[in-house]
Structure formats: C-alpha cells, structure tokens
Amino acid sequence: MTPKPTLLKVLDYLSVIVLIIAAYLALVYAPTEQIMGDVQRVFYFHIGTAWVGLLGFVLSAILGIAYLVTKDMKWDIIEVAAIEISVVFFFITIVLGSVWARPAWNTWWTWDPRLTTAAITELVYVAYFMLRAGVEDPERRARFGAVYALFGGLSAPITFMAIRLFRSIHPVVIGAANQNQEKMNMSGDMRVAFFFALFAFTVIFIDLFWNRIRLGQLESKVEQLKLKVM
Amino acid sequence: MEPTPDTSAYMIAGYAVFFIVSAIYVASLFIRNRSLQRDLETLEDLDAKK
User: Fold this and answer.
1) In this complex, which of A46, A99, A218 lies closest to B40 when CB atoms are compared?
2) pLDDT by residue (tens digit) across B1-50?
3) β-bridge partners, A34
4) Residue ranges of the domains in chain A?
5) Among partner residues B5, B21, B43, which is closest to A91 by beta-carbon distance?
6) Which residues contact B31 (CB under 8 A, 6 or more apart)?
7) Which residue of B has its CA nearest to A38?
8) N or C: which end of chain B has fewer CB within 10 A?
9) Rounded to an integer, what distance in angstroms lies between the CA atom of residue B18 and that of residue B20?
10) What is the pTM of this model?
11) Alpha-helical regions (H) of A106-229
12) How far apart are CA A46 and CA A196, in angstroms?
C-alpha cells in the first residue's frame, strides 16, 4: 500500500482541530437557549452529522450510476466508503435527535414523518451491507450494491423534505414551508456555531472518506491476492 | 418569565454518544487497516514462494 499522502495527513490534523473548535463553539461560545436550556447545544452536531450523512447517501447513488455505466470497481470502493461513513454519522444524528426530544417533546421517540423517514433511511443502508455480505462474486456484489445505492439514494431527499411536505413536529432550520411549522430562530452567536459545525463536519467527512477509500483499495488488493494465491 | 430548565445532563449524554461512536469508528478503521496490512504481507510472501 502506498504511504499516506501528505495532504491526507494534513487533513487528519485539520479534522481534529475543526472538531475541537466546533465543540468549543457549540458548548461554550453559543448562548444557552432560554426555553430548552443546554440540551439545545446538541442541535449543532445533530445538523452537522445529518448534513454529511445525507450527503454521503446522495453521493453513493451518483457513484452507483458511475459503476453501472463504467463497470469500474473503483466506483464500487468509493460508493461503499460513502455509505459506511454516512451510516455512522446518520446513526449519531438519530441518537442526538432522540436525546434532544426527551426534554423537548417529553419522549425519546415518536413516529413523526421526519423521524420515521430518517429511521427508514438508516435501516435501508444497514441492509445495504447485509446484501453485500451475502454476495461472494465481487462484480455481482458491486452491481447489486450500485443498483441498491441508486434506489436507496431516493430516501435521502425524502427524509430532508419530510418536514416540508407533511405535518411534522420536527423544527425546520432552513426555510419553513408554511407558517404553522416551528422555525428555529438563532442569534448571531448561534449562527456562528451552526455554520462552523457544518463546515467542520464537511472537512471531517472528506478526511474519513479519503481514509475509507484507501482502506477499500487495500481490501480489494488483499481479495485479489487471495484469489491468486489460494 | 419561566426559568431556563436544567437539561445539561441530556447535552452531556448527547455529546458522549457522539464522541464514543466516532472514536469506535475511527478505531475500527485503524484496526481493519492494520489487519489488512498484515494479510497483505502474508499473501505477498506466499505469492513470492510460489
């Protein structure tokens, strides 16, 4: 395996730095929300992880198309990387949302359209790995995975739009669809923490994505060598 | 005006989940990478002896 590129090493360190800054802004810099109290601070990481989670799912659908068109295994490796990282981030999103909901809605979970579509999306992509694990032939696995990722990708925009299309108690952060919806009003300091969290998670996503692609390349190399030697 | 409720325990729980899950994932990347590097070395040795 080729040594880690300098740019990736820089990105590794940068990710740690932006994460520390994002945590500082969320936990210390941003003011305490008057009605909800400190639990509102999970919102910054909740949105940050949701953003990169959904980004990876949409990206994987595009990568699925790239594989189906070119049949090049590199697209399969990149697609798996995107989905794996997004599954982790989206799991965190759901848990953080649930932790916020307990004091805000007096329940850990409710079958609201946003929560339901988010849970379905997460389960769709957990099933993606179960599907892949059940297929031995690498090309068949990549083809099935690509088709699955293509259709699975639809769940991401549905989740994003759920609070705009259906009656939901979930707050809308960007542009409420109608006047009845609860819209978050952020102060200037809250906006700083919010937008920095979005930036930080984008950097972290790129870093993890690159590292995971390299791991996928290594997996592929080992798999090919196994077939040759065994 | 009602006083702001103390919901800091939930905040701590939320951030604990974030850092624990993230750390587990990063550790899993590291462990898988190390294990694959070892497999690759073994397979390359076997291939060279063939």
Assistant:
1) A218
2) 678 888 899 999 999 999 999 999 999 999 999 999 999 999 998 888 87
3) none
4) 6-229
5) B21
6) none
7) B8
8) N
9) 6
10) 0.91
11) 113-133, 138-152, 155-165, 188-229
12) 13
Question: If you measure CA to CA, which chain A residue comes closest to B31?
Answer: A215
**Cα(A204)–Cα(A17) distance, rounded to whole angstroms?**
10
| Residue A6 region by backbone torsions, left for phi larger than 0, else alpha for psi between -120 and 50, else beta | alpha
- The whole-angstrom distance between B48's CA and the closest CA on chain A is 10
Q: Which residue out of B19, B25, B28 would a mutagenesis test of the A interface target, given it has the greatest number of A Cβ atoms within 10 Å?
A: B25
Put simply, the answer to whether A45 touches B39 (Cβ < 8 Å) is: no
Extract the tokens encoding A110. Answer: 């409710």
- A35-86 pLDDT tens trace: 888 888 999 999 999 999 999 999 999 999 999 999 999 999 999 999 999 9
**For residue B15, what are its two tokens?**
């951030």
- C-alpha A116: how far from its chain's center? 16
Q: Which two tokens stand for residue B40?
A: 């690759």
Residue of B nearest to A208 (CA): B26
